[in-house]
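Weekly modeling sync, notes
Attendees: AB, CL, MP (scribe)

Item 1: holo prediction request
CL wants a bound-state model with 1,3-dihydroxyacetonephosphate before deciding which constructs to order. AB pointed out that an apo prediction alone won't tell us much about the pocket. Agreed to run with the ligand included and paste results into these notes for async review.

Input as submitted:
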Amino acid sequence: MRKKIVAGNWKMNKNFTEGLALFSEVMHMANDELHNNQQVIVCSPYLHLHSLVQLSKGNVKVAVGAQNCYQAESGAFTGEISADMLASAGVQYVIIGHSERRQYFGETNATCAEKINIALKHNLKPIYCIGETLQQRESATHFDIIKSQIAEATYHLSEQEFAKIIIAYEPVWAIGTGVTASSAQAQEIHAFIRKEIAWQYNVAMADEISILYGGSCNPKNADELFAQADIDGGLIGGASLKSRDFIDIAKAFN
Ligand code: 13P
């Protein structure tokens, strides 16, 4: 059975003190209220990561992820962080290719491919983000865009490597806008992604991969979204900054 995952992406929010307090709340609520069939992941800014890993030691329900890593092993890349550094601090997951990184920091499918490689090399599980802009949807190129985002960043991977990836479908027009993709729109794309993976790899692989939905997901719409056959959870932005909302979203799987 595919893993059910609810991941929070704090983006550039919460100072150190606020972040530790939020994470402690999330952990307590997850322990008290969530069943064991789901994985909660908190992707914080780099600053918080090591402390969050320490706080979550021995906790199987809540894991810690980063929001990015650099594609080189080490060296003169001022301000960047390496996959090795993240892994050595106990981080288990890393978001790669978020649309904000593509939009503001020039990341491409090719750089995402390099980041996925280095993440896997250091045993970090990549949460690879894909999704179309409003303009691409309106011009009906969204299927092609999504297909190339997957193909160019992941199809060089062996089956064994690809099996470690989590995919997050985040339509850019739904991120932080309050406009959620309808459950039918999201399901359509998730099923398409699974079909593409089956075509490139095999049906068993397509059945195994967790595909998350992201974009204005909240406690009110999570139930319906997560009830879709090919939606295995969510990548949550704004609502992950409030412990109650974040855990209520995860409870859609209870
Ligand atoms: P929102 O949930 O705030 O729309 O953000 C989604 C997102 O970008 C998660 O990575």
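Recorded for review: The pocket of 1,3-dihydroxyacetonephosphate is lined by residues 9, 98, 170, 175-176, 214-217, 235-239 (CB under 6 Å).
Action items: CL to compare against the apo run; MP to circulate these notes.
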